[in-house]
Every structure is written in structure tokens, then in C-alpha cells.
Specification:
The complex is a heterotrimer of chains A (879), B (181) and C (84). Chain A has 879 residues and is of the alpha+beta class. Among the domains of chain A are: 17-102, Roll (Ubiquitin-like (UB roll)), CATH 3.10.20.440; 117-212 and 319-366, FAD/NAD(P)-binding domain (3-Layer(bba) Sandwich), CATH 3.50.50.60; 372-462, Arc Repressor Mutant, subunit A, CATH 1.10.10; 491-541 and 637-729, Probable tRNA modification gtpase trme, domain 1 (Gyrase A, domain 2); 545-635, Alpha-Beta Plaits (2-Layer Sandwich). Chain A is built from 18 helices and 47 strands. In chain A, the strands form 12 sheets. In chain A, strands 9, 10, 11, 12, 13, 14 and 26 form a 7-stranded mixed β-sheet that branches. A 6-stranded mixed β-sheet of chain A has the order 38-39-40-37-31-41. In chain A, strands 43-44-45-42-47-46 form a 6-stranded antiparallel β-sheet. In chain A, strand 38 and strand 39 (678-683) form a beta hairpin. Chain B is of the alpha+beta class and 181 residues long. Chain B contains 4 helices and 10 strands; from the N terminus they run ββαβββαββαβββα. The longest helix of chain B is centred in the last third of the chain and has 15 residues, at 163-177. The mean pLDDT of chain B is 96. By secondary structure, chain C is mainly beta. Chain C has a single domain, classed as Folate-binding superfamily (Folate-binding fold), CATH 3.30.2270.10. Chain C is 11% helix and 36% strand. Chain C is built from 1 helix and 6 strands, in the order E-E-E-H-E-E-E. In chain C, the strands form 2 sheets. Chain C has a 4-stranded antiparallel β-sheet, with no helix packed on it. In chain C, strands 1-2 form a two-stranded antiparallel sheet. In chain C, a hairpin with a 5-residue loop joins strand 5 (66-72) and strand 6. Classes of the chains: A alpha+beta (879), B alpha+beta (181), C mainly beta (84). Chains in contact: A-B, A-C, B-C. Chain A binds chain B through residues 118, 120-125, 152, 189-193, 196, 199, 201, 472-473, 476-477, 479-485, 503, 542, 547, 549-551, 627, 629, 631-637, 698-700, and chain B through 12, 17, 19, 74, 92, 94, 96-102, 117-125, 128, 140-142, 162-165, 167-169, 171-172, 175-176, 178-179, 181.
């Protein structure tokens, strides 16, 4: 049992357990409290009255409230877990053993170390959600259950002691959204989880959130020792804390009679009651050397002035129903003159919602309230300086002077006033100062408070950490990591991976593995050389694949591709280009005819889903009469690409029953085949210009087939290669990659593929190719670039200008940009692909890529096909 | 003591997608005969053959997924397709063997619904997603076909997910288990 | 988080859908007969009303069907439409 401090009452406090003391520190001083205390109640119990210095004016501040409306007591907490957190609301945070708490001036310090705490999230569906477990909330719950015993009725309350049937405490609703969607944060749902985000879909919502007391603005209204009146009652009765010794009460309503009773219980002397209804006012306060309240200046209705010694000033300017959640999704408010506060009016349009109890404006015990919000300075002609200590939003150091300045600047909307003064933008989001600001603004504008209104409330209602919102979706789980069936092999040999959308694809296979192996540059030169001189193998499983079936399949493909597919023979493959209606290239790939009424379409990896979506959109919304159906089979097949002059030997070994000679299995055809004893398909498609076979087997067999190919290729030094080498090999042939050479503004004609654009049939995008902008002569064309210096590597994305351009002009005329750039084993030098204005008419001319530093890189414009332009290597004959 | 929930990666499941115009009742009848159970027309429901060795999941107004028993072998799906096309006769019916296109994660136990609730936004109450229901939806960030089997108090669910997402999804669910407390 | 009523699957969270913008924009029957200005209008120009209008959605993570509905852009009240 710890000796009670002079401000801890000897008995009482229904939340604290005096048999369980806790040790903590505040600004280095060792202090004690009890289980059940908040940080704030423990500080008060230890006689701590200054807990912060204000953010801009550096004024000493104390604890003003006992809930989320607290504007001052925002402290830095060093948690036992090792993480330090700024701006923690001391009045709503339970005390824990071993906490180190520090006062702040302003915002505090963000932790840089990772918080190892576990946060998660859960979805829930209920018929009735009741927000607030007070008397009205519990009554509403009982009513809901009686009306429908089968209904799921859930009551949520942020109070950790709220409990009972269907009641979940320690859970604060932070936002209400459309169609009954509610988000709440639950503190410590279980010992291993620090917080849980609840995403709830509710059939109906009952707002039983009660009301919060508000203050009054007067000179020096922010001293430590000045509190909302009901907070004193809370500290006395819940926590057994005497918040002061001599109190003045400044009130506009009858609710403070309960405060008077609590003060008497705690042995606090009531030095004066200043009742605004009798025209009495607090006109100022005085403080000691540290700024703590020690006297209150009072003006009586009969003209008397008096100064009363006091270390506690309890203010009640009225009560505001807690209506923020009502307005999150466009419920409206009206001003209720009877209680001088805003109450719910029309419910949100998409969410059945009702308000009950104090939240609805049914506040007991107010009696007659006089709507006093501000006490003017006690001088005949107050200057702006005289308003400078009438604080309205203590957390933002915003005063009545701030409001007067806003209106003086010509602002009239409360939304503008909010942003100009920043009132309501701090941690308490206007819970104490908001209605005060609206009332003062209304008075200054000569309007009704109801007409001025309050600024829109937005989620979150109380602060929520990013870690809480992220939940479990962080680190390795922040997004799916998609892998092929061959992935374990790649990992085992130490491949270096790159992200291609959500896929992990091997980028290169360094000899010696990923930690001590060769550099990417060396690996890529080696891999490319192997593919062009012997044989390479690549995991192409990620490519999009779509099964297209039906009597109208060929007609359909004619409409979606720029070139013709209805004439494709069964057993043959054709490269196709796809545009959107705006005429720009959207995707490309090889499509093969499996039967009269069946095609196998391949797309780029990144566009697999987008292409299927595109096909479905046109079929469903424009051409529902076409008898075609599309099915994604991207993951039905693993694909092993065998590439190079020796590819035929490898495939022959792995597919002994397949006729692989060039005349038996020509370029751009496919065959059914038993591949390492697995039934599959082989396609003669080449993305490198070399002899190549893409072997497709059902997905789970991919790794076994890969290993069989490696075994069969061992005599030829078969070399696995990754996406980087793949990019180089295709670039040497001038093959564009969608998304690299194209960016949504590139037409087939820009790519030099006018030959693939049918002049005979209608297709998506065709009309746009006739737009004036599409036929401009200075459009950018796909070309090759050879740097003058054969070792100079152009940066991808580099801008291109004329070699004699004046680089100091603003702007420098831009001729184009580099889209791909590599070192080439086959060419023995660097090269690039680029989009250059009128490029095809400028072969042989030079361009300059200006770079940081004194020198750019000069290059010659060439054809985009730099290697084997006559395609002699395609069938595997010696070059 | 039995664990509150068990997560199991299933063996190969023969699967065939089938698409046919639902308005053609004669065709539906023929297909139902070939499958031994009528393809469901009520959205998000599953029809089960009498011997329990064939299920037809509604995926869309003209789309079904036929699922055969775990480990039944690689010949089952092609034979299923052949049976469908025989029954189709001249009608426009398409099918695709998608046996490798999705793998199954089976989630069984008292805590199956609470576990799924960490990652699935559907109303998982047995009144709304009881045995015989299915839904295409998201669990965590993976697209799945969610299939409810097994009655309370130990329901079971199959999540049919594309193989490239399977490791992520299984990892995510096992991580979420900690939150069961 | 809007609740979008798929005409087949019932109400689902908006994250299961892809938005399709203004409904009722048919692909022109004869694109070649349109002037450049008329073609650009088809490609790019859309209404942006304050209040109730008709729009398209596709249930991308579900049954993958396109459908129309009416939504009030101010209040987000949704009125189910029809499949196209």
C-alpha cells in the first residue's frame, strides 16, 4: 500500500484498485499510481498540475478534461515494449507499470524504430449497432433484442470498463461511412494483440454517444488548474483524486450542482459560484510564478468586482451532444436553442441511424441554460491584444483574437474560419472549442449560430495509428507475392528476383548465387551469349493466357486485334496487337488456333487480367450476340521457354515422340506433345529471334519439366536466364515491350507496325488512327540508337535533343526519349531503343541525351532491328 | 485437445468450368443428366451429386465450376468435358479443364468462421453462408472461390485460389490465427 | 465503403467492383461516318452531374458481370438498375 499523496483521497475512486500499485515516471520523477488510473488521474494524484507547454505560445498547461476532448494533456510515452509514442492523450490512456511519461511542447518526437506490436483487423455484420453503452445505449439494445430475438445486436463503448451481454468495451467507433459501414478500434483484444480494427456493416445504427461539456472563453482561460466542471467530478469519484483545494465554479446551467456535491465529498472548499444566469462572470485569472492558477477575477451582476483565491476553476458553458459520427456520412444538425447546442436533425441518406439520450439532445439536469460563450475584455475599447488570451482551442493556441482576425480578413464560412484559425484541427478535433468558435463567429457576423453551423466532422473521431490501419498487411504480407511452380528451383540456386506486378520473377541467375555471385552486368552478358550461341531456358509461366471458344471466336478476335485472326489456320500462331478505342496500343501477344472454334491467347504478364476484363467488357456490353466465351487459364499452365541454336536438340530429348525438324514443326505453329511424359503443348514462338520452343504443361508439372530440360540441355551448357536477359534479347531484335516502349500514347504506326493494321476489317481503335493527332508527321517513331562511344550506356528515360541544341534555353526542344538501353553480347557494344519524332525519316542522324555533369551521350539513330534483321537465326540454322 | 481450426493444402482437384445459356431449359436438363445433378440457377449455391463425388458451383449467370474429388486423377476432367459436350449436342456449350488453375485450401473447425472473418468481408453467419453456399470474393488480398461445407459446430470451408497466390494466402491465414486468442 | 448491389450476387463491398463510368454510351454503329469531333465526344466526353444518374459497374472479384445502377453523386444513395 502506497502512502496516499496529498491529492489522492484516502478512500473512494470506483475505478482504482488500491491493492495494485503501479510505478511510473513523469519528466524523470518517480511516481506511483494504482491499477485503474489513467495517466492523467495518476499525475493529478501526485500533485502534478503542469503537464505541457502550449504548441505556439509556450504557455503552461494542465489537465482540463477526463476524456477524448482533452486539448492539453498530450504526452510522450515510452512504452515498456521499447517504443516511444508522442501526443498520447493522458486522460484516456490507462496507467501501466513502468511507463516513462514526458511532457511536451508541441508535437513530440516520432519513433523511428519499428513497433513490434501486433495489430490486426476483423470484419463483422450486425443487424443493430449501438454506439455507447450508457443508460440510453443499453435501453436501445434491450429494445432491439425484444423487437427481433434473432437479430445480432452489438453495443460498442470506448470505456474499458463497459461490459455485459452483447457489449464490447475498450472499443471506440472512429468513423461512420455509407450504407451502414462503421469502423472501430478495439484496444488489446487479447494478450498478444495490441489493437484490432473492426470493419462493421450494420443494418441500423443507434447513436448513444452522450454529450461532452464545453467551456467559456475569457481572459487567461487556459491556466493549469482550470478544468471542465464535470471532469472534477470524474477525477473525484472514479479515481479518488482531489483536483485542487479551493475551487471557483463558473456555470451557465444546473449540471454543476452535482459537481458541488462531489467537491464537498472530497473536502474541496468552494470559494465562489459564478452563475452566468445571475449576470456573474469570470473576467480573468491570475497565476503563481509557474503560471498555475491561484486567483480568479469575478464581476458580479450588481457591478461588484472581486478577486477570489483559488487553485481550481471549474467551468461549465453547457453540453454538446456528441454528434460527430452522425455527420460523418451526411447526417445533418440543427441548433437547439433549449440547450444551446447542435443536435441531430436529418439522418444520413444511406444509413438508417437514430440518436437517443444526451446524443439526441435529451440532456438531464441542465435546467435553464444561458448561452454564454465569451466574456469580453474588461476595458472600454478593447484592442486585438485584449482578446489574445481568450483561448478557444487550447490545443492549437487559437484565441478569440484568431477568430476576429479571420473575420477581419473577410472570411464568413465556418469552414474557412476553421482553416484560417486551425480551430478544430488538433487532436481533439473541435470537441471543446468547435461550438464555441461557431457561436463567437455567429455573434461577430450578426447571424444565428444554427445558420453558421459547425465544420464537417470527418473520420477518425480519435487518433488512430498507421500501424493499426495496416493491421497484418505489412512487410512480407503487405501484398501477395505471386510465384510460379518453378520458383523453388530459382530460390535454391540463388537467383536474383525482380517484382513484376505482384510476381517475383528471376531477373538473372548469378553464377555462385545471389550473395557472392557475379554482377548483373556479367550475368546478363553470359546468359545472352549462351542463348544466342547454344541454348538458354527461361520460366515464362507468368504470361497471361486466355481460352477463347465459340463459333464466333475468329470474328471476335478480328474485332479486338488490329490484324486478322479469323484466317489463322488450326495449328498456327500469330502475333497480334490490341488497341483501345482511342487507338493507342494496349497489349500484344501471340494467339494460336487450337480448333475452328477455339483459340489460345497469350498476353503480357502485367496485362493478363486487364486484357480479359477488356474482352469481357466488349462481349457483355457491346456484342452479347457473339457466341464466344473467354476463360482465364494463366495459371493452368507452366511455361518453359527453350531458346537458342541447340534448342531443337533439347526439345527432342525431352519430347521423344515429337517431330521437331523445321519442316515438321515450322515457326509460329504449335503441337500437342508429351513433355517429359506430361501431356502438354509446344509452341514455336520466339521473343529473342533465336530458334525457340515454349513448352506448356499443367502448372504443377512445371518444376519437373524445367529440371528435365536442364538435364537434357546439360551437354550443351544450357543456361537459365531471367527477365533482364529476356529484355536484352528482344530489344536486339527491336521487339517492343508494352509498358516500356509504349505508355498509352503510342499507336501501332508509331511502333512501325502499320503492316499489322488491317485495312480490310473493323477493329477496336481503328477510327482513332484517322484522327489528325494520330497522323501528324512529327509523331514519335520507335527507332534504335547506337551511342557514338560503344561503351556509353544511355539511361532509360533519358530525354533526347538535337546535338547542337542550346541547353541553356528554356525549354530545350525535346525530340524524344530512351525507352530501353542495354549492353549487348551479340553486338559487342551498348545500344538502345527510343521514341523519336519522325524517327524513321531520320536514320543516320544524331541525337544527344543531356545528362547531369558536363557531357551527355551522343548517339546515331538506326533501325530498331539491330541484330539479324533478316531473321536467319529463327529456324536454328547456323548464322 | 483439438485445435480450434485446421488449415490444409488439398491435393489436386479435378475442375472444369462450364458455360451454357441458363434460359435453355432443355439443355439444362441434358447437362443435369450428364452431371447427375442440375447445375444451380440460384446465385452462389452449390449442387451436390447424390454420391457426393461431384459438385457444381454457381460462378455466374451462365457459368459453373464442376469439382470432382481430391486426388481422383488426371483423366477425370477430360472425361467430364467429354460428357458435357455429348450432352450439349448442337447447343452452344463451352468447357475448359482448369484443374491446375486453382488449388484448394481447406479450413475446418469451430473457429473456421472467426478465422475467415479476419480476411473476408462477407457475412459469414451460417444463416447467410451455410453449407451448400459459395461465393467469389476476396480473402485478404487474394481472389478466391469460397465454398462452405460441413455443418455447425465444426464447419469447413474450401478456398479455391490460383496457385500463385496459395502460399501467400496460407501464410496470411496462419498469421491471422494468432488473433483467435 | 459503398455497398454495391450486384444483380446476381447481392450487395458486396465496393472493393469487389471496378467502376465503369457513365452508362448508356454505346459504341457507334458506324465510326467511320463520324466527324473527328463526334468521335472525340464518344471517346472522352462524359457527364458529371450533381445528383442522381446512371452508371456502370462490373463485379470484378465476383461473378464478373457488367451492370448498370443509379446513384446519387451527392448522397451515394444507390438504386439498383439492370444488367445490360
Amino acid at each position: 500500500m502506497t502512502a496516499t499523496t496529498q491529492t489522492r483521497l484516502p478512500v473512494g475512486g470506483d475505478r482504482i484498485d488500491r491493492s495494485q500499485p503501479l510505478a511510473f515516471a513523469f519528466d524523470g520523477a518517480a511516481l506511483t499510481g494504482f491499477t485503474g488510473d489513467t495517466i492523467a488521474s495518476a499525475l493529478l494524484a501526485n500533485g502534478v498540475s503542469i503537464v505541457a507547454r502550449s504548441i505556439y505560445h509556450d504557455r503552461p498547461r494542465g489537465i482540463m478534461a477526463a476524456g477524448p476532448e482533452e486539448p492539453n494533456a498530450l504526452v510522450q510515452v515510452d512504452w515498456p515494449s521499447g517504443v516511444s509514442e508522442p501526443m498520447v492523450n493522458a486522460t484516456t490512456t490507462p496507467l501501466e507499470d513502468g511507463l516513462h511519461v514526458r511532457s511536451l511542447t508541441g508535437m513530440g518526437r516520432l519513433e523511428t524504430a519499428e513497433d513490434g506490436s501486433r495489430f490486426d483487423a476483423v470484419y463483422a455484420h450486425v443487424e443493430v449497432l449501438i454506439i455507447g453503452a450508457g443508460r440510453s445505449g443499453r435501453a436501445a439494445a434491450a429494445e432491439a433484442r425484444a423487437a427481433d430475438p434473432a437479430a445480432r445486436v452489438l453495443v460498442l463503448d470506448g470505456d474499458p470498463t463497459a461490459s455485459g451481454d452483447g457489449i464490447q468495451g475498450d472499443t471506440t467507433v472512429i468513423g461512420v461511412y455509407d450504407h451502414g459501414y462503421v469502423v472501430a478500434v478495439q484496444r488489446r483484444p487479447d494478450p498478444r494483440t495490441e489493437g484490432r480494427l473492426w470493419r462493421i456493416r450494420a443494418g441500423q445504427i443507434v447513436l448513444a454517444t452522450g454529450a461532452t461539456e464545453r467551456g467559456i472563453a475569457f481572459a487567461d482561460d487556459d491556466r493549469p488548474g482550470i478544468m471542465l466542471a464535470s471532469a472534477a467530478t470524474t477525477y473525484i469519484r472514479r479515481y479518488g483524486v482531489r483536483p485542487g483545494n479551493r475551487a471557483v465554479i463558473f456555470t451557465t446551467n444546473d449540471s454543476t450542482s452535482d459537481v458541488e456535491a462531489a467537491l464537498a465529498e472530497a473536502g474541496v472548499v468552494i470559494a465562489a459560484v459564478v452563475d452566468a444566469r445571475q449576470d456573474a462572470r469570470v473576467v480573468g485569472t491570475r497565476g503563481d510564478a509557474q503560471g498555475r492558477l491561484n486567483a480568479v477575477d469575478i464581476a458580479r451582476g450588481d457591478g461588484r468586482h472581486e478577486t477570489v483565491d483559488a487553485d481550481l476553476l471549474l467551468v461549465s458553458g453547457g453540453w454538446n451532444p456528441n454528434v460527430a459520427l452522425w455527420t460523418h456520412t451526411k447526417g445533418t444538425l440543427r441548433f437547439d436553442e433549449r440547450i444551446a447546442a447542435f443536435v441531430p436533425d436529418a439522418p444520413p441518406p444511406t444509413t438508417p441511424m437514430t440518436a437517443v439520450g444526451a446524443a439526441a439532445g435529451e440532456i438531464d439536469g441542465l435546467g435553464t441554460i444561458t448561452p454564454l460563450v465569451v466574456v469580453p475584455p474588461q476595458v472600454d475599447a478593447p484592442t486585438e491584444d485584449d482578446w489574445a488570451t481568450h483561448y478557444v482551442d487550447l490545443g492549437r493556441d487559437a484565441t478569440v483574437a484568431s477568430l476576429r482576425a479571420a473575420l477581419g480578413a473577410g472570411l464568413e464560412s465556418i469552414e474557412h474560419v476553421k482553416r484560417y484559425t486551425t480551430i478544430g484541427t488538433g487532436i481533439e478535433q473541435g470537441k471543446t472549442g468547435g461550438v464555441l468558435a461557431s457561436s463567437i463567429t455567429a455573434a461577430l457576423l450578426g447571424q444565428d449560430v444554427g445558420a453558421v453551423g459547425v465544420p464537417t466532422f470527418r473520420p477518425p473521431l480519435v487518433p488512430v495509428s498507421f500501424a493499426q490501419v495496416a493491421g497484418r498487411d505489412r512487410g512480407a504480407l503487405s501484398d501477395p507475392i505471386r510465384v510460379t511452380a518453378i520458383q523453388p528451383w530459382h530460390v535454391a540456386v540463388g537467383a536474383v528476383f525482380e517484382d513484376v506486378g505482384q510476381w517475383k520473377r528471376p531477373r538473372y541467375f548469378p553464377r555462385g548465387g545471389d550473395t557472392t555471385g557475379e554482377s548483373m552486368d556479367d550475368a546478363v552478358l553470359r546468359e545472352c551469349a549462351a542463348a544466342r550461341t547454344s541454348v538458354g531456358v527461361m520460366d515464362a509461366s507468368t504470361l497471361g493466357k486466355i481460352d477463347i471458344q465459340g463459333p464466333d471466336a475468329g470474328r471476335f478476335l478480328d474485332r479486338v486485334y488490329t490484324n486478322t485472326f479469323s484466317t489463322l489456320k488450326v495449328g498456327a500462331c500469330r502475333y497480334g496487337l490490341m488497341c483501345k478505342p482511342h487507338g493507342m496500343v494496349f497489349d500484344d501477344g501471340v494467339t494460336s488456333r487450337l480448333a475452328d472454334d477455339r483459340f489460345h491467347m497469350m498476353t503480357t504478364t502485367g496485362n493478363a487480367a486487364a486484357v480479359l476484363d477488356h474482352l469481357e467488357e466488349w462481349l457483355q456490353t457491346e456484342w452479347p450476340d457473339l457466341r464466344v466465351r473467354c476463360t482465364s487459364v494463366t495459371e493452368q499452365w507452366s511455361t518453359v521457354a527453350v531458346v537458342g541454336p541447340r534448342a531443337r536438340d533439347v526439345v527432342a530429348a525431352v519430347c521423344p515422340d515429337l517431330a521437331v525438324a523445321n519442316d515438321a514443326f515450322p515457326f509460329m505453329t504449335w503441337r500437342d506433345a508429351l513433355i517429359a511424359d506430361v501431356p502438354g503443348r509446344a509452341f514455336r514462338i520466339s521473343f529473342s529471334g533465336e530458334l525457340a520452343f515454349e513448352l506448356n504443361v499443367p502448372t504443377p508439372h512445371g518444376k519437373a519439366v524445367w529440371e528435365a530440360v536442364l538435364a537434357a540441355g546439360a551437354p550443351f551448357g544450357i543456361t537459365p536466364y531471367g527477365t533482364e536477359s529476356m529484355h536484352v534479347l528482344r530489344a536486339e531484335k527491336g521487339y517492343p515491350i508494352i509498358g516500356q516502349e509504349t505508355d498509352g500514347t503510342v499507336t501501332p504506326q508509331d511502333l512501325g507496325m502499320d503492316g499489322l493494321v488491317s485495312k480490310k476489317k473493323a477493329f477496336i481503335g481503328q477510327r482513332s488512327h484517322r484522327r489528325p493527332d494520330a497522323i501528324r508527321p512529327d509523331r514519335k517513331h520507335l527507332v534504335g540508337l547506337l551511342p557514338i562511344h560503344p561503351e556509353a550506356l544511355l539511361p532509360e528515360g533519358a530525354q533526347l535533343v538535337a546535338p547542337d541544341a542550346d541547353l541553356s534555353s528554356r525549354p530545350v526542344p525535346m525530340l524524344g526519349h530512351v525507352t530501353s538501353s542495354y549492353r549487348s553480347a551479340a553486338l559487342g557494344r551498348t545500344f538502345a531503343l527510343a521514341l523519336v519524332k519522325g524517327g524513321r525519316e531520320r536514320l543516320g542522324e544524331r541525337v544527344l541525351a543531356p545528362l547531369a555533369g558536363p557531357h551527355g551521350i551522343e548517339a546515331v539513330i538506326t533501325s530498331s532491328v539491330l541484330f539479324d534483321p533478316e531473321n536467319r537465326r529463327r529456324d536454328g540454322e547456323p548464322a | 485437445m483439438t485445435a480450434a481450426v485446421r488449415i490444409r493444402r488439398m491435393g489436386p482437384l479435378p475442375q472444369v468450368t462450364m458455360r451454357a445459356a441458363p434460359a435453355d431449359r432443355a439443355l439444362r436438363g441434358r447437362l443435369g443428366a450428364a452431371l447427375t445433378v442440375a447445375p444451380p440457377t440460384t446465385p452462389n449455391t452449390v449442387a451436390e451429386a447424390a454420391d457426393g463425388r461431384l459438385h457444381v458451383l454457381w460462378l455466374g449467370p451462365d457459368e459453373w465450376l464442376i469439382v470432382r474429388p481430391e486426388g481422383a486423377g488426371p483423366d477425370v476432367a477430360p472425361a467430364q468435358e467429354a460428357a458435357i459436350h455429348d450432352a450439349a449436342a448442337d447447343a452452344f456449350v463451352t468447357s475448359v479443364d482448369v484443374s491446375a488453375n486453382r488449388v484448394g485450401l481447406e479450413i475446418t473447425g469451430r473457429a473456421a468462421r472467426p478465422l475467415l472473418a479476419f480476411g473476408c468481408a462477407l457475412d459469414l453467419d451460417p444463416r447467410h453462408l451455410g453449407p451448400g453456399c459459395c461465393a467469389q470474393t476476396m480473402v485478404a488480398r487474394a481472389g478466391v472461390i469460397l465454398w462452405a461445407l460441413g455443418a455447425e459446430p465444426t464447419p469447413s470451408f474450401r478456398l479455391l485460389v490460383r496457385p500463385s497466390f496459395a502460399t501467400y494466402l496460407e501464410t496470411w491465414l496462419r498469421d491471422a490465427e494468432v488473433g483467435l486468442g | 465503403m459503398l455497398l454495391i448491389p450486384c444483380p446476381h450476387c447481392g450487395p458486396r463491398n465496393e472493393t469487389e467492383f471496378t467502376y465503369g463510368g457513365q452508362a448508356g454510351i454505346a459504341y457507334p454503329a458506324a465510326p467511320d461516318a463520324l466527324t473527328d469531333a463526334e468521335w472525340v465526344e464518344y471517346l472522352f466526353l462524359r457527364h458529371n452531374p450533381k445528383g442522381r444518374w446512371r452508371e456502370r459497374w462490373v463485379h470484378a472479384a465476383g461473378c464478373r458481370r457488367w451492370f448498370d445502377l443509379e446513384r446519387d453523386t451527392l448522397t451515394n444513395e444507390i438504386h439498383p438498375g439492370t444488367a445490360p
